[in-house]
Amino acid sequence: MAIFLGSDIFRGSGYGKGHPLNIPRVWPVIDICKAQGWLGEDQFESVPPATMQELTCFHTEEYIQALLDAEANQFIDIKRSERHKIGTHSNPIYPEIYRRPATAAKASLTAASYLISGKYKRIFNPSGGTHHGFPDAANGFCFVNDPAIALTTLYNNTSDKIAYIDIDAHHPDGVQNHFSHLQRIKLFSIHEEDRWPRTGRKGDVGAGNARNYPISRGAKDTDLLSVMCNNILPELLEFAPEYIVLQAGADGLVEDPQSGLCYSNHGYWRAVSMILELEIPILVLGGGGYNPYTTARAWAGVWALIIGQNPHVAECVAESKAVLESLYFPHRLGKNIPGRWVSRLYDD
Ligand SMILES: [Zn+2]
């Protein structure tokens, strides 16, 4: 049994003019999945924002208080801005600066509890995957590190092994820093070489239990799937985790403005399928994804895979096309959008 966790807070919320995250991301996925007949009311659960107490399992109280104050006042003083990296170009103050990331974190926290209780075996939280966040500071568009909160919840409430797999174009520095020394957690990342934050180089194992597989700019499906088959899967099977957290950032897809990777959504979905096919209880997160068209199609397809549908051949119904046509993309790539971004869910 699978559940999709979300909230209406993501509808209409953006990081402000000029920011790469000032695009629709979560609600189009929900609307497309509903239009496709993939998401019934009993498969969707809305969650509230996490509380200070819940967030401080990973973050400092001072940092969460700074987010609360920044939301209330839409301002932060220079001293706290410098310490917590809030109110910067990358991590701007916007109307839902606390509630939005806190809601994504609550979804990941809820998901971890459901995995532990066995209520659901497959859980999707496309609002999550903000893997750069640090305990006391925002980092790389990430205010709250929801993968870290899910891992902490699974780690502290079980004595089981947990694998974290990250296929986002960027290295999950915030996650690696905090967990790579723990024997019951193993971290795997495939990301673009020499791309911000420039951590996770080849051979970097963090404090022992991280595995990093950087790939070159221009890497295609075959490169992604080769690392999955030859490097990640064998070691993952040997580790034999009881739980998996999969960060499925979609910014490695071709035509995403924030990476030079060139995956098609077929390759991306195949990578996700390889993990799902292990039939290990799993939380699948979103993450990066800065082209609203490719991101919405990719994540709708991930939900399809989670519930056993086949997005590689799925017909895009008229209502889904209407959702895609309604999206906005304030970037040069969004000026004359190709018809293939809105007419089908799968790539050529
Ligand atoms: Zn990314």
Question: What does the model show?
Answer:
This protein has 348 residues and is of the alpha/beta class. The protein has a single domain (2-343), classed as Arginase, Chain A (3-Layer(aba) Sandwich), CATH 3.40.800. 37% of the residues lie in helices and 11% in strands. It contains twelve helices and eight strands. Strands 2-1-3-8-7-4-5-6 form an eight-stranded parallel sheet, with helices on both faces. Helix 1 (27-35) crosses helix 10. The model has no long low-confidence stretch (mean pLDDT 98).
Instruction: Quote the average pLDDT.
Output: 98
List how many beta strands DSSP finds. 8
* Cα shape: globular
End-to-end C-alpha gap: 31 Å
Give the domain tally: 1
**Main structural class:** alpha/beta
Rg estimate, integer Å = 18 Å
The side-by-side strand order for the widest beta sheet comes to 2-1-3-8-7-4-5-6
Strand residues, percent: 5-15%
Largest sheet: 8 strands, parallel
Short description:
With 348 residues, the chain is α/β, with parallel strands linked by helices.
List the helices and strands and how they pair.
Layout (H helix, E strand, L loop, with lengths): L1 E5 L20 H9 L8 E3 L5 H4 L5 H13 L4 H7 L14 H19 L4 E4 L20 H12 L4 E5 L6 H7 L5 E8 L17 E6 L5 H19 L3 E5 L17 H12 L5 E4 L6 H15 L11 H8 L14 H4 L5
Parallel strand pairs: 1-2, 1-3, 3-8, 4-5, 4-7, 5-6, 7-8
Helix pairs in contact: 1-10, 1-11, 5-6, 8-9, 9-10
The chain binds zinc ion.
